[in-house]
Amino acid sequence: DTTNYPNPTGFIKELHDLNAHFCISIWSNPDKNSAIGKEYVSKNLYISDSKWLDYFNPLTRKAYWNTLNQNLFSHGVDSWWMDATEPENDALHGTKTYLGLGDFYRLTYPLFVSRAVYEGQRKTTSAKRVCILTRSAFAGQQRYGTINWSGDIDGTWDSFRRQIVAGLDYTITGMPYWTTDIGGFFRPGKAQYTDKGYHELLIRWYQWGAFNPIFRIHGYQSETEPWRYGETVEYNMRKMLNLRYRLIPYIYSDAWQITHNGSTMMRPLVMDFNGDSAALNQQFEYMFGKSFLVAPVTKPDVSEWSVYLPKATSWYNFWTGKQFKGGQTISAAAPLDRIPLFVKAGSIVPLGKFLQYAGQKSADTLEVRIYRGANGNFDLYEDEGNNYDYEKGNYTIIPFIWNERHKTLVIGDRQRIYPGYLKKRVFNVVFVNEFGGTGIAVSKTGKHVLYFGKQIKIQMK
Q1: C-alpha distances in angstroms, 144 versus 71, 148, 194, 357?
Q2: pLDDT tens digits along 189-227
Q3: Is the peptide bond between 87 and the residue preceding it cis, with omega within 30 degrees of 0?
Q4: Is 276 helix (H, G, I), strand (E, B) or coil?
Q5: pLDDT tens digits, residue range 320-351?
Q6: Per-residue pLDDT averaged across 292-303, rounded?
């Protein structure tokens, strides 16, 4: 669209200068009558008697990436929103693809679409990580830098509850990055901006979204900026945004566990408490990483929420610091601005500074919360942030080990280096209780520790 976007490179640069990334929505079936489509037709790259490209053909995958690179990626596009990669309406039924019968290969179509973009971008540059948001997937697709979202869903309480179960079912398959349209894709029209009932749903959905692997909001014919919904919604969204940003050191380190060890960020309780029958019956509770127990509020007009705390460990209320024995159901305070959130004893949770965007401030100072009651460890992972040099070993890991019996915290030797790594760190070590280390605020208590990459041993008094 040269009329509205005469200088796409300059336009995207302006967004980058505002510290934003640019994700573009694309479909995988160019119109056969378009200039691009006609070129594909001339090379016989469509599935016969179909409007869908034959991504099973290596030549198609190469040609498709060349189109994206020439028209989009070369101008600075950062990530891809690839819709309708199923393809829609079972369009491969009765067709013949490059590999064989469409009825046999149809479910693998999104795998090959994602492969086309991933392999093309990786061959083009290693300076920008592939990020693909796509509606459909097939087993093994996680290797192609994909995030799946759950499609066009209704903005209702019932739909919200179904999303929690869907996300847990999906991520346990081994595909770790999943997301949903917070507030629903289909919303109550213009009434969404004034409807207090919908606002409550939106707030609760947003709270839960902060503990999804990918945190995003989207809606059909909607302006989803928080301030469009009034002060109450804006306040609650800001609170969760602040928490999400403070948790970046924890989340990014957990993402490394996914990449390096095949872990999962959004964890059904069966993954960590498979010997606890009561835990297995909790349909909507789950672990976010290995430390956080998330219990989203899934009904309107409540101020308290029943939470089952799995046995074999004790738990801390994230908001109050109060400790509870596991193996019991408690009534947790759940005012509109609070999602029930508990931290497992033995957890070590790093929190960063308040940010407006990732990388805004140096990570030289971190708050490190220690949840006593069991032995624990945590590997703080860091790298350059947006390239593939970590595959060459360019990253750092700082190990934290808590010994409950001896009441000691060991911050181990820094492992590896990367260009620009932080040589001097300040860790504010906080032992969580009801008087400190709670909620989103930066803790005023704690022990400030200077760290230069060599092992430090801290004895709790």
Answers
A1: 21, 12, 41, 25
A2: 999 999 999 999 999 999 999 999 999 999 999 999 999
A3: yes
A4: coil
A5: 999 999 999 999 999 999 999 999 999 999 99
A6: 98
Which residues participate in catalysis according to the annotation? 83, 86, 152
Quote the pLDDT of residue 336.
98
The DSSP symbol for 46 reads B
Sheet of strand 146-149: strand arrangement: 23-27, 79-83, 132-134, 146-149, 178-179
- Contact, 441 vs 320, CB < 8 A? no
Q: What is the pLDDT of residue 208?
A: 98
Domains assigned to the chain = 8-259 (3.20.20.80), 263-344 (2.60.40.1180), 348-459 (2.60.40.1180)
Helix (H, G, I), strand (E, B) or coil at 353: coil
Query: Backbone phi, then psi, for 137, in 5-degree steps?
Result: -150, 165
Choose among 398, 388, 455: nearest CA to 421. 398
- For the purposes of burial, counting CB atoms within 10 Å of the CB of 300, is it exposed (0-12), middle (13-18) or buried (19 or more)? exposed
Element holding 10 (H helix, E strand): helix 8-17
Angle, CA of 265, 269 and 271, to the nearest 5°: 65
